[in-house]
Backbone:
């Protein structure tokens, strides 16, 4: 059986925007279908802040595979074991938060790739091949080339090390966690602050230099999102299930309240 194609990786390779649908609360297999129906390219299954079990994460991943929406899982910092289990069971990308140094980035890249790129263990027929892979060596090389390794820059140290992190083989995306970055900078929530603009510029320059992709999270308003996308952000989290529901539901309830006068 053919390997599932990552539409997100292909969009990024072409320099196109790839937008993510964040999942904190949804648990049913309808989640990736809803993401596809609303024009999203990847599903951001948040195992860092969402209350997911590994079972729930992987069921969402497997459900996403036939939809064309790329299942990507964020695990907690340093949770390499959870990341590799997610990959074995349908994830096509992993987001690791709080990556501050190139040494941390290298450890992550090594863990998420099969030899000779890294040291990931073969767990048998993977979901991304419909459990019918070709020979092991062929399957491992193909999977290495298909998954996305995303490291989050969320501190001034990480921004200072952006160039060195971007230089690490096997790292695909430098994803700025803007909320935590502003908190670490002592300017919590000020996503348009000059220090944040400088941080995005430093990460964008590093990505261009090393052929990597700039990612953006925590920026959802038109003014600042437009600025950072123009600076080069292409792997973009556009919102999450709770924010979408609260925003949409509030608009509808206010609409009907206005009708009543």
Residues:
């Amino acid at each position: 059986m053919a390997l599932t194609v990552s539409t997100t990786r292909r969009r990024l390779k072409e320099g196109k925007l790839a937008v993510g649908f964040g999942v904190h609360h949804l648990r049913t297999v309808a989640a990736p279908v809803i993401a596809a129906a609303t024009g999203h390219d990847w599903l951001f299954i948040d195992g860092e802040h969402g209350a997911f079990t590994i079972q729930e994460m992987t069921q969402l991943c497997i459900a996403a595979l036939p939809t064309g929406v790329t299942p990507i899982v964020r695990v907690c910092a340093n949770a390499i074991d959870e990341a590799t289990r997610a990959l074995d069971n349908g994830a096509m990308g992993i987001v690791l938060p709080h990556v501050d140094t190139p040494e941390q980035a290298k450890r992550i890249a090594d863990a998420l790739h099969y030899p000779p790129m890294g040291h990931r263990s073969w767990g048998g027929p993977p979901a991304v091949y419909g459990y019918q892979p070709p020979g092991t060596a062929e399957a491992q090389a193909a999977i290495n080339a298909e998954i996305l390794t995303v490291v989050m820059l969320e501190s001034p140290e990480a921004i200072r090390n952006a160039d060195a992190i971007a230089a690490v083989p096997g790292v695909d995306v430098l994803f700025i966690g803007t909320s935590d970055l502003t908190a670490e900078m002592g300017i919590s929530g000020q996503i348009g602050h000059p220090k944040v603009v400088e941080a995005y510029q430093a990460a964008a320059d590093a990505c261009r230099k090393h052929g990597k992709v700039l990612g953006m999270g925590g920026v959802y308003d038109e003014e600042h999102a437009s600025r950072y996308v123009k600076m080069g952000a292409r792997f973009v989290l556009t919102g999450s299930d709770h924010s979408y529901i609260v925003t949409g539901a509030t608009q509808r309830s206010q609409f009907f309240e206005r009708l009543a006068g």
About this structure: DSSP finds twelve helices and eight strands in the chain. The longest strand covers residues 233-240. Strands lie at 18-23, 42-46, 70-74, 93-96, 148-153, 173-177, 213-217, 233-240.
